Amino acid sequence: MSKPINTADLYDERGDELESVAVQFQNLGGHTHFCGPVRTIRCFEDNALVKTVLGTPGEGAVLVVDGQGSLRTALMGDMIAESAVANGWAGVIINGAIRDREAIARLPLGVKALGSNPKKSAKTGVGEVDVQIVIDRVRIQPGVMIYCDPDGILVER
User: Fold this and answer.
1) Collapsed DSSP state (helix, strand, coil) of residue 113
2) b/e per residue, 119-135, with b = 16+ CB within 10 A?
3) What is the CA radius of gyration of the chain?
4) Distances (CA, A) of 31 to 41, 93, 136, 150
5) What is the rounded distance in angstroms from the CA atom of residue 49 to the CA atom of residue 42?
6) Inter-residue contact 26 to 114 (CB < 8 Å)
7) DSSP 8
8) Cα 150 off chain centre by
9) What span, in angstroms and rounded, lies between the C-alpha atoms of 55 and 105?
């Protein structure tokens, strides 16, 4: 793995080209620094699409899941996170909850989420893949670069 990119340094260099997400996501994965091109999912308390997408080749991408901030059910657990690692994803950002925090913390995967809840989500597949999402007024388009570390999240404009 190459040298980790620090978001503060990156912002100092390229601030005009970047948007900063102010939501205070928790760092929950084994990798604290991660970046890559974005894939997106918009869903609500249903993780079927998360499981499906993370089961495909990630090629170093970061999956950004807009779970609409719900902490009532987990959108990713350790088995889905293990699938993400096996399929080459750099990381996952969930505007919602995960579960199996301790197991996920041991995986070589960047994970940011709002928190955790042991309750499983629905599995009906309701949601949208590779659509523009908005988190904290920051538009996140599929394909743009995203950079994450313990300081926060930067998205290319």
Assistant:
1) strand
2) eebeeeeebeeeeebeb
3) 14
4) 21, 12, 23, 10
5) 9
6) yes
7) H
8) 13
9) 19
Using the predicted structure, report yes or no on whether residue 64 has a pLDDT greater than 60: yes
Q: Coil, strand or helix: which one is 147?
A: strand
Question: Which of 27, 52, 28 minimizes the C-alpha distance to 39?
Answer: 52
Contacts of 82 (CB under 8 A, 6+ apart): 107
pTM of the model: 0.97
CB 97 within 8 A of CB 117: yes
Q: Amino acid letter at 42?
A: R
Q: For the segment 91-106, what is each residue's pLDDT rounded down to a tens digit?
A: 999 999 999 999 999 9
Q: How many CB atoms lie within 10 A of CB 150?
A: 12
Measured torsion, CA atoms of residues 138, 144, 149, 150, in degrees rounded to the nearest 10: 10
